[in-house]
Amino acid sequence: MTKKRDLRIVFMGTPDFAVATLKALLNNGYNVVGIITAPDRPAGRGQKLRASAVKQFALKHNLNILQPKNLKAETFIEELSSLNANLQIIVAFRMLPKVVWQMPKYGTFNLHASLLPDYRGAAPIHWAIINDETKTGVTTFFIDEKIDTGAIILSNDAIIEKATTVGELHDDLMTIGSELVIKTLKLIESDSVSTTIQPQSKDLKTAYKLNRDNCKIDWSQSIDTIYNKIRGLNPFPTAWCYLDNKDDELLMVKLYAIEKHIYSHKHPNGLIIASKDQLRVACEGGYINIKEIQLPGKRKMDVKPLLNGFQFSELAKLL
């Protein structure tokens, strides 16, 4: 019987997505000798410093935490080296310099929320839904010089239902991913890892970083394209557009829960059809029925109470 390797793990991650994996490591008895996470950042109206989700979890479990601003800084490299880790695990962190990912004896592997090589990049969960995929998954791979291109260790599929939002898929992949990391660790422990080199192709789908421009709704697009974009950005960072209520100024609104209704009509794209309990928007191929919306300076709310107090012009449009 092969003797198991004695793993000393450094874990790097920042958001909630990474916490599930860190929790799984502790629950399975792995020796986590250090946590690397982002520095505290101002948040909220008061702009008070807020610790990352990973730091908050690590503090509760008395783990050793480092929060470097510069991953190439000599002081950080010395601190990292002093932990004597022989394996590093990366979940939703940032790109590492070679001096960092090459440091441990057994390598550095990453958990990525797609079935690589498709959807390399910053927002794989969002783009899978925006592009109307029916399947995605998670992948573990050893890090190399480029982003998400290293040799694949393991992967696991996940089905995307027609009404799935990015929030729901995020939570599913968070759980599936944490389980895949444990399976990957067992292979590394027993020195039985077999990797697959990612294929080279020009036709790969990319998970571009989300920004204000690519989160804006274009009401001239088809109903399916609009529907997929809104659910692919719900609840974060959220699809948005302008409301022209025939007042003095356009209002920036965010859309959350929606339904789509395929229907032949002659209304112009973006026209709002409001009733006592329903808010529909015309687009190519039907109507988007808005269930939750956020107006400027307000919280997200159900449209029914909104319709009781907000007057939509008969010519109101979303732009």
In short:
With about 325 residues, the chain is of the alpha/beta class. The protein is about 25% helix and about 25% strand.
What does the model show?
By secondary structure, this protein is an alpha/beta fold. The chain has two domains: 9-206, Formyl transferase, N-terminal domain (Rossmann fold); 213-318, Formyl transferase, C-terminal domain (Methionyl-tRNA Fmet Formyltransferase, Chain A, domain 2, Roll), CATH 3.10.25.10. The chain has eight helices and 20 strands. A seven-stranded mixed sheet has the order 5-2-1-6-7-9-10. It has a five-stranded antiparallel sheet with strand order 19-18-13-12-20. The longest helix is centred in the middle third of the chain and has 24 residues, at 166-189. The model has no long low-confidence stretch (mean pLDDT 93).
